[in-house]
Amino acid sequence: MIKKWIKKIPALNSSAQESPEPSDQSDPIQGKGTEASTPRLGLFKRLKERMGKTRNGFVRQMDQILLGRHEIDPELLDELEEILIMADMGVTTVQDIFDKLRIEVKKKELQDPLALRKRLKEQIADLLKVPSTQIRWTPSPFVVLVIGVNGVGKTTTIAKLAYRLKQEGKNVLLVAADTFRAAAVEQLETWGKRIDVPVIKHSAGSDPSAVAFDGMEAAIKRDVDIVIVDTAGRLHTKVNLMEELKKISRVISKKVQEAPHEVLIVLDATTGQNAISQANLFGEAVGVTGIVLTKLDGTAKGGIVVSIANQMQIPIRFIGIGEKMEDLRQFDPEEFVEAIFAER
Ligand SMILES: Nc1nc2c(ncn2[C@@H]2O[C@H](COP(=O)(O)OP(=O)(O)OP(=O)(O)O)[C@@H](O)[C@H]2O)c(=O)[nH]1
Ligand SMILES: [Mg+2]
Questions:
Q1: 243 and 94 in one domain?
Q2: Distance between Cα 155 and ligand 1 center (Å)
Q3: Which of 100, 205, 289, 320 is the right S-S partner for 294, CB 3.0 to 4.6 Å?
Q4: What is the total count of domains within the chain?
Q5: How many Cβ atoms from other residues are within 10 Å of residue 80's Cβ?
Q6: Structural domain containing residue 94
Q7: Would you call 317 helix, strand, or coil by DSSP?
């Protein structure tokens, strides 16, 4: 029986460890190891590799528990439930899943551990299927305001997004409205040069709303398709970040009707459930329309994606799975579930 099991779960078929993740030390655009330089490394394969920590930390652990069992008993369900909670899927989300599973087991609709694994995967996939995860990118100029606490990955996400849009033939403009640190303006400028996208900036310490205003004027004058506005993740204690963001948003809407069209909150997946509180806090202030979940490559608790999709009424637009330009992915629930449940 156990042998049959091992065959059915190829991930457990070998005692070898996952192959190490490719190094990210090379140039994020041109360097070796990028998808451009290794065309055979498909997008899905890279996603699978980058989600390796989550796969090892949660799906593999789950499989190891399932491996020793011949039938579904209450202890098995309890153990699996604990693993999912530990993977940051959120207590209520996990309880909902297991309430359903317990009923199915009781009705004998679920009889063996392999069917249980399949059902769990289906349930997770269902939770992730939230409608309208795509941005329409019209009218023009289409204004994207990017917000989030410091260090979550706003500026690098903007660079990746601009790179992506430019490759799709869009005319993009970046606005450095994070004037809190001189380095923040420089960082965006450096990215702008690297990906060949213009950046509107003022000197450090100036009013972020004034930069946003100039950014909108330039966008109209230059007839750009998409403007992406970078903001600070923290300010001097005297200035309230939420008030500042509201002001930036107001200034943008005065210049471009109905803008910002998209307010993207960037959340760091490694901060776990804390990310949800951040989204709520910013959401109350500036009406968030989409989520970018970064650093999923750096956590074994990728279950946070499920928790966010299930608890928030805001779609996950993109996920960050590394520091290379290609590592900002449009969020595709089915592909994501396949990648974390993938077998070697
Ligand atoms: N591994 C990994 N690192 C990431 C990802 N996204 C961003 N980072 C890294 O996170 C760090 C912080 O990124 P920034 O873009 O500077 O963050 P920020 O939100 O703009 O920070 P502040 O400007 O200080 O508010 C950088 O070292 C990025 O390379 C990701 O998806 N995976
Ligand atoms: Mg930044």
A1: no
A2: 7
A3: 320
A4: 2
A5: 23
A6: 2-128
A7: strand
Closest to 317 (Cα-Cα) out of 104, 107, 146: 146
Q: Is 320 in the pocket of ligand 1 (CB under 6 A)?
A: yes
What three-state secondary structure class fits 140? coil
Instruction: Quick: pLDDT tens for 298-334.
Output: 999 899 999 998 888 899 999 999 999 999 999 999 8
**Same-domain status, 150 and 103:** no
Residue 32 binned pLDDT confidence (cut-offs 50, 70, 90):
very low
For residue 321, being part of any structural domain is answered with: yes
Query: CB of 156 closer than 6 A to ligand 1?
Result: yes
> Would you place residue 13 in the very low, low, confident or very high pLDDT band (cuts 50, 70, 90)?
very low
Ligand nearest to the CA of 329: 1
Q: Are residues 173 and 303 in the same domain?
A: yes
Q: Look up residue 250 and give its amino acid.
A: R
Q: What is the mean pLDDT of the chain?
A: 87
Contact 299, 53 (CB under 8 A): yes
Atom of ligand 1 lying closest to residue 159 CA: 15
Q: State whether 205 and 280 are in the same domain.
A: yes
pLDDT at 8 over 70: no
Question: How far does the centroid of ligand 1 lie from the alpha carbon of residue 186, in Å?
Answer: 15
Q: What is the pLDDT of residues 120-156, one digit of tens each?
A: 999 999 888 877 678 999 999 999 999 999 999 999 9
Q: What is the CATH number of the domain that holds 166?
A: 3.40.50.300
For residue 328, the cross-strand partners are 320
CATH number (domain holding residue 30):
1.20.120.140
